[in-house]
Amino acid sequence: MSVLVYTENWDGKFKKLSYELVSYATALAKELGTSATALSIGNVDETELKSLGNYGASKIISVSDDRLANLVNSAYSKVIAQVAEKEEANVIVFSNNFGGKALAPGVSVKLKAGLVAGVTALPSSIEPFTVKKAVFTGKAFANVVVKSDKKVLSLARNSFGISETDNNAAIEIFTPELSDGDFRTNVKDVTKVMGKVLLMDAEIVVSGGRGMKGPENWGPIEELAELFGGATACSRPVSDEGWRPHTEHTGQTGKIIAPNLYIAAGISGAIQHVAGVSSSKCIVAINKDPDAPIFEVADYGIVGDAMKVLPQMVEAVKELKAEG
Amino acid sequence: MKILVCISNVPDTTTKIRFVDDNKAFDKNGVQWIINPWDELALTRALELKEASGGAIEKISVITVGTKDAEPVMRKALAIGADDGIRVDTEAKDAYYVAMQIAEAIKDGGYDMILAGIESSDYNGSAVGRMIAEFLEIPSVSSVSKIEMEGGNISLKREIDGGTEVMETELPFVAIVQKGIALEPRIPNMRGIMMARKKPLAVVAPADGDALTEFAGFELPEAKAACKMVDEDNVKELVNLLHTEAKVI
Ligand SMILES: Cc1cc2nc3c(=O)[nH]c(=O)nc-3n(C[C@H](O)[C@H](O)[C@H](O)COP(=O)(O)OP(=O)(O)OC[C@H]3O[C@@H](n4cnc5c(N)ncnc54)[C@H](O)[C@@H]3O)c2cc1C
């Protein structure tokens, strides 16, 4: 028995999200009276692999195979299922990100292991195995019982946090059994956004809505995000209008994010927008309409003109930074 | 070539979510049901591809797993332009069960392209499309934001963390689609609605098998503390609160 956690890498590096996953898997393993094993697929150097041990993994399995340079749903799922069987894993943990959504369901079918996607906490009960997840896009939570012996969980981002422990984990190389039939999709071209904090990774997000009037007014939003080392976002009409790129669209039909701080300027707070940001730890609303629904979900609010408030905020943050 | 689009019957996105039976079941009272937003976009894109294909795409079918309650959204999908539909007549118990039912129902259907949405807006499982591919042992591409077809060649664009990739795939395949796949969902017109009544909507019995998960109960999020208001002339105060009280900056 063990808990297996799949830790995706980005150009050979792990992210905060990977460490959160390992922390979760380790805590889960403790509750089950077993240990957590991390699985990495791709070219990741030894120091980086070892770092997973600092969050509690007692063993790290590394698979590197040239054919696995890009994500291939079927091949990756097969590798993970093979490792799960070898390790006699009864719980397999993924992130509920793009990679997790592409792989966890495949592993679930291969192992006939019930899947719960977007888990937000450790199980509330082990017998029966019951975990909590958000449903109706953040409007409610469900407690889900997994009836199968094996279980697949995907963890919602920023829902568990990171806990460091000292663990000198051993690295083990695993050679999967793959055939040509596992590689029936092919990447022809890759475009990467370089040098920017990704919206999904950002701890602070500054977001603008239709109340910002036009793309020419985004200056203070970008400046604030930059000061915070965060990312910019927007409401759907803003990306539909082409004021901002589609990758910034947050909400029910865009990106669902959970930063520590979400600043919404000139956003009314429509239910579909809020669905995508309600898991943020702290929400600040700036809106000239005191009755805007965004104030119902915000922790802090200013009723006022965002064009005037945002530049003042930039100055105040600069001052705060100067004070150290 | 034949395309299949998976349809999920979900509450309208503005629905106030409530539960009944001691919080064990979703309260369907007064709920408006819609085609899951991503499924609607998938269907829209399938129709666009068909119209531009010069006859190469012969047919677009839609499928759902659901009781009679799901019939209206299936008729709507036919009104939007799908040629025929299949309803597997059983409760949609969990993603595994739904995917297994769809795979069983279509395995001999000869579909070349199967489209599913990245998640359904009710239980947010993000799993059915990918599971269908696994049950049928065919390739799949996830988080697809574009599908193009030119002279029989299919090209897919998928989102990855921090970028995009252009993909090619063998047929048949499953594409799990998200934002970008089509701009606006198509709305049925009068002619479509009339024609939809005569289009075939087969009802098939479920295959044997069971779900692997079940809902034990639901909870609503804790009520949020009231929003703390700061005066518009005192932005500095807000920044201080974020620093010292909320401790987020
Ligand atoms: C199926 C479906 C899915 C959807 N998915 C999403 C989604 O994923 N994401 C999303 O965002 N929306 C989504 N929507 C759209 C959503 O319903 C709203 O229309 C949208 O969120 C509104 O965007 P907004 O707040 O920017 O604009 P508006 O609603 O127009 O609000 C603008 C706000 O700015 C304020 N304002 C104006 N001027 C100023 C000023 N100078 N200073 C300060 N405040 C000012 C106004 O008081 C107002 O509150 C969806 C809708 C549907 C039907």
Overview of the molecule:
The complex is a heterodimer of chains A (324) and B (249). Chain A is an alpha/beta fold and 324 residues long. Chain A has two domains: 2-183, 3-Layer(aba) Sandwich (Rossmann fold); 204-323, TPP-binding domain (Rossmann fold, 3-Layer(aba) Sandwich). Chain A is 28% helix and 26% strand. A seven-stranded parallel sheet of chain A has the order 5-8-4-1-2-3-9. In chain A, strands 12-11-13-14-15 form a five-stranded parallel sheet. In chain A, strands 6-7 form a two-stranded antiparallel sheet. Chain A is elongated, with a radius of gyration of 21 Å. With 249 residues, chain B is of the alpha/beta class. Chain B has one domain (2-221): Rossmann fold, CATH 3.40.50. Chain B has helices at 37-52, 71-80, 95-106, 128-136, 190-196, 235-244, and strands spanning 2-6, 9-11, 19-20, 25-26, 33-35, 59-65, 84-88, 113-117, 140-150, 153-160, 163-169, 173-177, 201-204, 213-219, 228-230. A nine-stranded mixed sheet of chain B has the order 11-10-9-12-8-1-6-7-13, sandwiched between helices. A two-stranded antiparallel sheet of chain B has the order 2-5. In chain B, helix 2 packs across helix 5 (190-196) and helix 3 (95-106) crosses helix 4. The radius of gyration of chain B is 21 Å and the shape is globular. The termini of chain B are far apart. Chains A and B meet through helix 3, helix 4, strand 5, strand 6 and strand 7 of A and helix 3, helix 4, strand 9, strand 10 and strand 11 of B.
